[in-house]
Structure formats: C-alpha cells, structure tokens
Amino acid sequence: MELNQLTIKQANEGLKKKEFSSVDLTKACFEQIKKVDDKVKSFISLTENYALDKARKVDEVGNFSNPLSGIPVGIKDIYCTKGIKTTAASKILENYVPPFSATAVEKLEEQGAVMVGKNNLDEFAMGSSTENSGFFPTKNPWDLQRVPGGSSGGSAAAVASDQCFYSLGTDTGCSIRLPAAFCGVTGLKVTYGRVSRYGVMSYASSFDTMGPIARTVEDVALVMKTIAGQDLKDSTTPNIVVPDYSKGLDQEIKGLKIGLPKEYFAEGVDEEMKKVVEQAIKKLESLGAKIVEISLPLTKYAIPTYYILVKSEASTNLERYDGIRYGLSAQANSLMEKYLETRGAGFGPEVKRSIMMGTYTLSAGYYDAYYNKAAQVRTLIKQEFQKAFEQVDCMVTPSTPFTAFKIGEKVDDPLQMYLADILSCPINIAGVPALSVPCGFVKPKDGENEMPVGMQIIGKQFDEQTILRVGHQYQQATDWHKRKPGLK
Questions:
Q1: What is the number of domains present in the chain?
Q2: Dihedrals φ, ψ of 84, to 5°?
Q3: Is the peptide bond before 151 cis (omega within 30 degrees of 0)?
Q4: Each residue of 243-292: pLDDT tens digit?
Q5: Fewest Cβ atoms nearer than 10 Å: which of 56, 251, 254, 388?
Q6: Which DSSP helix (H) or strand (E) runs through 457?
Q7: Is 133 within 8 Å of 123 (Cβ atoms)?
C-alpha cells in the first residue's frame, strides 16, 4: 500500500516506529495531487511549501502522541486560515487572506496537523454537487462525468482519491454526508454546537456544523477528539465534556435498538440503492442489533421548512459582503451603485437565488406566512426526533435518495437539486448527529461505473459515540470502505 493510502491510525503507528516521516507522507500526498487533481479538481489552492515546512518541524520534534501529528489534511475553503487565501469558492472573496484561523484549524495546527491545501466547495456552501463553485466544478473520482456531491465535494473527492488522509468539511443540510456517500468515504455531521463555528464563513448560523471526512470511522473518531469542545468565541458550543471517541468503538452492538424510519425508505429513494442499504441493515442485525420500524411523519415538511429557514439566514449573513471592508470592491459613483456592482459581479447564481429567497421570506407581509411558520414546524420536527429517540438508541437510513448524478444533469433545475437533501436536512433541523458510511455499490442506469452508496446512522444529541460505534462495527464486518476508485 502507498503511503498516501494509509489510514490516520496506520500512519500514526508508522511515524511512531520511524518507518517513515511526516515529510514522506506529505510528499506522497503531493505526488498523488500532481497525478490526479488535474482531473478531479478537488483543491482551490495548494500549500506545498507551507506543508513541507510544517512536516519538517513535526519530524524534528518527533512527538507523535497525538494521532493527527504529522498527518496531511485538506481544509474546506470556507475555514479561515491565517495568512493563507480563503475564498469560500466565491469570486467576491477570490483574493481574501484572513488575519486569523478558524478554531477547528487552530486545534489541528496545535497538534501538528499538516495542511496540504484548501478544498473546493459550492460557493458559500450553497449546493449539493460542487457545481456552484465560483471557480470550477469538482468531479467524482469514481466517475469523472459525475458530481462528488456538495457542498464539501472537494473534501470528499480529495480523501476518496488519496490526495490527503482526511479533510474538514461543513454540514448545513447535507454537505458532509452527501459527498461522503457519493464518493465512498466516511463523514460525520456533528451535533449542532459540538465543534466551534468560529472562523468558518456562515451560510445559515443556526444550522451550520463542522466535521471530518475520512477513510474510516476510526479516523473520524481520532479527528473528533481534537476538534470538538467548547469555544468561548462561539457561544453555541456548550460546556460538555469531550469524550475519547476512539474508546468504545470496539464495544459490540448486541442489543442496541436501531430505528428504521419508514418515510426514509419510501417513494423517491432509488430501488436498487434501497436494496443495498437493506442488506447493510441485515448485517447490523447479524451483529446483534435489534431493528425497530418507526415513523417520522413530519419528514415530508422538512425540505420546505429547511429551505425557507436557511435561505432567510443566508440572506442576512451575506449582507456583510458589501465591497467596503474586505473582498471584491467594484468601482462606482455612489455607495448604492458600489453595493450593487460588487455583489452582482461577486456572487454566483445560487447565492443570488438564496439572497432573493431569503429576503422575500423575511419581508413585511410574508414573514408570518413563511419564516415564522417554518420556525414553528422546525420545533415540531425536533420534538418528533426526541420522541422517536425514546424508543431507539439510533436510527439508520440511506444517506441520499440516489447515487451521484452526472455533471450538469440538475444544475438548471434547482428544485431537483434541493431534493438531493431530502434524507439529510431533517437531521440538521433536529440538531442531532449523523454519520455516513459506505455500504455498497450500484450501477446507475445511465452509466458504466458502479457508484458508492452510503448508509446514514443518526444519533441523539451529543451522542456521537453511539453512531461511531455502530459505524465502526459495521466497517469491521465489511470491506466497502476499503474499495478505491480506479483513478490513475
């Protein structure tokens, strides 16, 4: 196995035994980047000199007690990185260099993580395909004619194609789990507030979560131990002890009650994909889990509720990009003209659509009919999840309603694109954690290559440990997560 194909745990063990160095790992990743990223387009910018310098310093110290020390990582280009360009994949921030780093990035750097570059995404994380990037679309390593999912498509594609060991993504409605499923890797959407949002450019502040994409559940657990926890710069992070997520992974799942929400296996979910997920559920049952059918009837209201609320928050958050303080600044004869010219040139179509939708739903005469009503339904959906978790320890569903679609297939139909989130956005509304793990492959009707299928494991608030344990036990009993795309 090539060095860049190791798991974080394997790489850490090799570093401790001095079988190779952090510089070796970093060079291996850059060799792979130079081989494949012209095709995949998973990075907006690379930090080769910075990474090699960091790797040398880590090797000199020689302390690999933290499993992330010396391990190459990609960072979604919506996390601020001090002195390193951060664009949010938007023309309006094309040349923005932050004077500080996001808390999650700082935590990784303190432990000796080696950043190899900034991953592509849908502009300001608004999208499900990474076609909405202001620069270029990212491609799925399993089939370069297909999308990698979004908005953390660059992060998932980079991990799937072995260009880095793991990446930090964000998940507002699907943005870690959907690309993880489409690209055949493992991704965790954390409980809202479990990881600090400080220094991460906001899409919808009451929905945004930060989390890892990696090759295995075990690797995800290692990353979580470092990035989770209270941050005084983010008041939504509670003072709750961060457990050692790696401990307990090997505990069997015998007797665990796993709920199957029937609405998540209904019309709209690809039949072949559904069969793959059902086989994965049988595997969990063979490991001793007790399968219980449950119902979440308010699921049908999740998409309209979600999109009304997030677009409203987005329209407010995006007011700060005015051409005055930072980013693109158009030349104009008046202040209003400056605003209009800057935002017109700097924002892409999906961001403009979000601003218009959000401004409309927050406007006088429509606030009560749309935003206020959606906020009320959000509360009901949260309560429905809480009630369901009184019956079960966790839930299992497909991660997505279909496998990766072709580039351009849905880009002109926003509603069809939004429906990609139908199985994932209820989890963000409820504020609970969910993990996507690879569970098989399906050959699409419109393609030659088999495409990955993801299984979503949903947990109670701040109970990432249980869903990580279920995911790890599944990966110990299967090999789907070990398959690699035939990209050369």
A1: 1
A2: -125, 130
A3: yes
A4: 999 999 999 999 999 999 999 999 889 999 999 999 999 999 999 999 99
A5: 254
A6: strand 451-458
A7: yes
The 3-class secondary structure across 367-414, one letter per residue, is CHHHHHHHHHHHHHHHHHHHHHCCCCCEEEEECCCCCCCECCCCCCCH
Domain range enclosing 470: 3-259+388-482
Q: In this structure, how many other beta carbons lie within 10 angstroms of the beta carbon of residue 20? A: 16
Q: Please tell me whether residue 184 adopts helix, strand or coil conformation.
A: coil
Residue 117 falls inside a structural domain: yes
What tokens were used for 187? 């991704």
The C-alpha atoms of residue 310 and residue 175 are separated, in whole angstroms, by 13
Q: Is the pLDDT of residue 488 over 70?
A: no
Residue 137 lies in a domain: yes
Q: Report yes or no: 227 and 104 within 8 Å, Cβ to Cβ.
A: yes
Does 163 map to a domain? yes
Mean pLDDT in residue range 120-128: 97
Euclidean distance between CA atoms 351 and 102, whole angstroms = 23
**pLDDT for residue 417:** 86
Which residues form the catalytic set? 76, 151, 175
CATH no. for residue 123? 3.90.1300.10
Q: Which pLDDT does position 244 carry in this prediction? A: 95
Pick from 192, 324, 152, 222: nearest CA to 6: 222
Q: What mean pLDDT comes out for the span 377-384? A: 98
**Distances in Å between the alpha carbon of 19 and those of 22, 291, 323?**
10, 44, 51
pTM beyond cutoff 0.85: yes
Establish if 167 belongs to a structural domain.
Answer: yes
Strand pairing of 394-398 and 451-458?
antiparallel
pLDDT score, position 447: 84
- What is the rounded CA–CA span in Å between residue 138 and residue 149? 9
